[in-house]
Amino acid sequence: MNVPAMQRLLAELRQSGISDENVLAAIGAVDRERFVSPAFAERAWENTALPIAFGQTISQPMVVAAMTEALRVGPRMKVLEIGTGSGYQAAVLAKLARRVYSIERFKPLSKEAERLLISLGIYNVVCDVGDGSRGWPGQAPFDRIIVTAAAEERPQALIDQLGVGGILIVPVGRDPTAQVVERIVKSESGLQRDTLMPVRFVPLVSGPLPVLGQG
């Protein structure tokens, strides 16, 4: 791990308003360089999104930190992540939660993330290949759900799989230039929604899995 670069990133996150020391510690404990393509290794600790395979991205660290902070994860919680990607967000969540369930449409991405997480000694992440818009009904309810792709509208299937007192963090918006992260808190009396920040994510795709991703 490039410790000076990691420390510079953490300082930048603090200056940008991230104050949860548990979240900052989790980001500092996960070597982002392991989760990016070798071609981008020198940029791993920059506060920027980077491309990974199948047209997906590893999110900007500021976005990972802000969404994770808003999720308010506790050490006994069961978390669902939609969009495994390279596994970076799952690795950060794994430092904070009891168990993380992560769904990815592209089988090669899922298998590579699973292999990488195990090689890093992260054993409390369960990976699966599937349609993330449907969630993971067999493991519901979840204490927390985080979506790392933009839904065109609030995903009802995920809201249904959220336990009472649970929090869903999801980017919403059809127009990539007008997406916002929403926090949805589920209570006995209904849902409370807050808009957190503008973002730009790849779209949350539903439907049959890509043949390309089955090899």
Detailed description of the structure:
- This protein is an alpha/beta fold and 215 residues long.
- Helix content is 27%, strand content 26%.
- The protein has helices at residues 3-15, 21-29, 61-71, 88-94, 107-119, 156-160, and strands at residues 50-51, 57-58, 78-82, 99-104, 125-129, 142-147, 162-172, 179-187, 190-199.
- A seven-stranded mixed beta sheet has the order 5-4-3-6-7-8-9. The chain has a two-stranded antiparallel sheet with strand order 1-2.
- Helix 2 crosses helix 4.
- The longest helix is centred in the first third of the chain and has 13 residues, at 3-15.
- The protein is globular and about 45 Å long.
- The two termini are 31 Å apart.
